[in-house]
Specification:
- There is one protein chain.
- It contains four helices and three strands, in the order αβααββα.
- The protein has 107 residues and is an alpha+beta fold.
- It has one domain.
- The protein has a three-stranded antiparallel sheet with strand order 1-3-2.
- Strand 2 and strand 3 form a beta hairpin.
- The longest helix is centred in the first third of the chain and has 13 residues.
- The radius of gyration is 23 Å and the shape is elongated.
- About 11% of the residues have low confidence.
């Protein structure tokens, strides 16, 4: 099933009141899967899924497929999207190279 057909199907369900609270945005091009969005943003697929669950991509919606639920992200959401700053432990610093190790004299 093409993305356009799936989008139309979801809009029909929304008009009939069967969307179960899924938000729909006006179609501004195509909707992308998490993998396609990750390729464009140069991050991992799991990261895009996390952003969708946290609501950082406000027009993203879940679509049920035979293989399970899939996040769909409108292409327009990626144009103005600024990824959040990384959190967590800072990277380890590099060891100083100017100091030499003390060498023990052999007996």
């Amino acid at each position: 099933m093409s993305i356009e057909k799936m989008y139309r199907r979801e809009n029909v369900l929304a008009l009939q009141g069967l969307s179960h609270g899924v938000r729909f945005s006006p179609m501004s091009g195509t909707d992308l899967s998490t993998t396609q969005a990750a390729d464009r943003l140069h991050v991992k697929r799991q990261t895009v899924g996390l952003w969708c669950r946290r609501g950082l991509l406000p027009n993203a919606y879940q679509m049920d497929t035979p293989r399970g639920s899939v996040w769909m992200i409108p292409e327009g959401d990626l144009r103005d999207f600024k990824p959040p700053k990384p959190t967590g432990r800072p990277p380890k610093g590099k060891p100083e190279t100017g100091r030499k190790k003390a060498v023990r004299a052999k007996k």
